[in-house]
Write a structure and sequence with these properties.
The structure is a homodimer of 215-residue chains. Chain A is built from seven helices and five strands; from the N terminus they run ααβααβαβαβαβ. With 215 residues, chain A is of the alpha+beta class. Chain A has a single domain, classed as 3-Layer(aba) Sandwich (NADH Oxidase), CATH 3.40.109. In chain A, strands 1-2-4-3 form a four-stranded antiparallel sheet, with helices on both faces. The radius of gyration of chain A is 19 Å and the shape is globular. The termini of chain A are far apart.
């Protein structure tokens, strides 16, 4: 434990900006495995994220069963076919079906993140009016994990085209856990500082000025 | 734009770990203002966060009206009195009322973060079955802002003891925006690598092993 507050210099600040700029949602993975110690290090940093009331409501479920992985991939493909239907008849449809939206079959590591909606830790501090703060705490841990991974050259892909109840049932977790994310983790086939959806013309980055308001 | 994927060395990795360890939820602020350019830099880094479908659904509302700040502080104090009632008759009650849970009156900067639940950007990619992904994207931006702030010696406090509908009405935003966070931003009075709730015996950090499961 350091007892004096650290100062971060310009060199660190520049590299931190580079880290943010090269963090991508990865769907194309190289076959290289992620070392078990690296996975442990990523998780240890993820839980340095803030959590409401220090409730630490995150529950990480690592997938070890090949049959489960195949079932998850099939489920996401099905849900994706339904989602594609939203764009049917629109010029965007061809772009949609050309997108690779998950790497569940080939990513070296698959991990689900759940939120314990009734954690003992935290004694319910800060959630009387906003119970969603527990779920938001889990998201903060995921974003921390994402940056920790990128620092090590590892990519993460967050799959959301799925039915949370179906995936929750597949993974057989306690009833008070809700699914936050299904994550694919591995070395990216093509690191980039530009989002794939931007590269492929789906959606560009919008000006910050359009996102900031005053009251 | 760099065209070769960056490598991050051990020195950076160690300082990144230090950054994570010194990120705190701050409720005690020094009076020193945050320079306008620094606020702009923080926001510019926050929006490097991932967002579902690249929808960039975050909407940042900076508070400039003293009367609004006072009204928000009063509202949070009221809600906090209600929340304290949950602990009445329990040994924890005295600990609860001794906690300072927000710095709304004294923080140099107050900012609300909203999620646009119907963003034009992203063309609804990735939210057919999990519309909450839009809100989760906003949380990823907040955690990014949090780290960007800490890098600059600035603290952030996330206030969640409030009624989101009341605060949303106070801030007079479009009807499809939902409140994600009310943030206090400024230099911390006492930087620390230990959460205040841990220092005060409310809740300790739990072992990572209790958070990781396999299926």
């Amino acid at each position: 434990m350091t007892h004096h507050a650290p100062l971060f210099d310009d060199d660190f600040a520049q590299r931190f900006e580079t880290l943010l700029r090269w963090r991508r949602d990865v769907r194309h993975f190289a076959p290289q495995p992620v070392a078990e110690q690296v996975m442990a290090d990523l998780l240890a940093q993820a839980v340095l994220a803030p959590s409401v009331g220090h409730a630490q409501p995150w529950r990480f479920v690592r997938l070890r069963t090949p049959g489960l992985r195949a079932a998850l991939a099939d489920h996401v493909d099905e849900q994706n076919a339904v989602a594609a239907g939203e764009h049917a008849g629109h010029a965007r449809y061809d772009d949609y079906v050309a997108l690779k939206l998950h790497g569940i079959r080939e990513a070296p590591e698959i991990m689900a993140v759940f939120c314990d909606e009734q954690p003992l830790a935290g004694h319910r501090l800060g959630i009387a009016t906003m119970p969603e703060m527990l779920r938001y705490s889990c998201v903060a841990a995921i974003q921390t994990l994402w940056l920790a991974a990128r620092l090590r050259g590892i990519g993460l892909g967050w799959v959301s085209i799925l039915d949370p109840r179906t995936v929750t049932a597949m993974l057989d977790v306690p009833p008070q856990w809700s699914l936050i994310a299904l994550l694919c983790i591995g070395y990216p086939a093509e690191p980039s500082d530009k989002p794939e959806l931007e590269q492929r013309g789906w959606q560009s980055r919008e000006p910050l000025a359009d996102r900031v308001f005053e009251r």
